[in-house]
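Training component of the fellowship. As part of building independent skills, the fellow (R.M.) carried out the full modelling exercise for a liganded target. The chosen ligand was fe (iii) ion. The inputs are recorded below so that the supervisory panel can assess the work.
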Amino acid sequence: MRIDLHTHSTASDGTDTPAELVRKAAAAGLDVVALTDHDTTRGHAEARAALPAGLTLVTGAELSCRIDGVGVHMLAYLFDPEEPELLAERELVRDDRVPRARAMVRRLNELGVPVTWEQVARIAGDGSVGRPHVASALVELGVVPTVGDAFTQEWLADGGRAAVEKHETDPFEAIRLVKGAGGVTVFAHPAAAKRGRTVPESLIADLAAAGLDGIEVDHMDHDEPTRAHLRGLASELGLLVTGSSDYHGSRKTCRLGEYTTDPEVYGEITRRSFGAFPVPGAGGV
Ligand code: AMP
Ligand code: ZN
Ligand code: FE
Ligand code: FE
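Fellow's submitted model of the complex:
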């Protein structure tokens, strides 16, 4: 069984539509794929409708969180998408992305970059707008060669000249909300140092005590020693360990299924959830 528990579509900052994403997931030989767009579940219906036979869809989202000034991402799986408290928080974060992206455009204009909100809005389409869309605009304008090159202090990295913060949820609150909606939480790329500051291990221990289910270990932003270390930490804290591609289509270099999750861990995630169930593609597995 090949299981990839972290992907993005055009519902946020990926470049494949949800339908394209599930087709590519099946073509890549995956048995299970989770759709985890930033702060939104709006891609789920389309992914579900297009689900190829033999592929199972795990509904999810990647929730933008912040604690002690450090941005962290919380993967949430199999929660009830209509549970009102979690839904309200997701909407708050997602809606704040618009004025924040407009503010980043203004900053860039002040820095002499002729980017416009219309351009960023066109690139984002109806997906939750984020820095990768602004980064794509910078690529279009020839300011940087690739999206990744926009994530520096010069431009859009955390604390960068044109970066603006958005409303983000306290991760303890996120765990509480996701559990209340019957879902399971996995701390995404917890030691991805190249993205900016990371949280201390004592915080991961505190989150584990507050009900965090797992940590994402096999991820392109963790080197081998970091992964080995995180595996040890997970075992100490009784946390599940996942691996996933964090696929963003052409906006990032990782391939679908580049990293995968152990079937036993996937089984445990499905056992712990009660807000939603994995959706088997027509024909089933
Ligand atoms: P936002 O949610 O708008 O703050 O944007 C965060 C997204 O930007 C992440 O989910 C990544 O997809 C992307 N990102 C963050 N850091 C980097 C980086 N160093 N290189 C490329 N993409 C990045
Ligand atoms: Zn993203
Ligand atoms: Fe992330
Ligand atoms: Fe992601």
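The panel noted the following from the submitted structure. The pocket of adenosine monophosphate (ligand 1) is lined by residues 13, 38, 64, 130-132, 147-148, 151, 194-195, 248 (CB under 6 Å). The radius of gyration is 18 Å.
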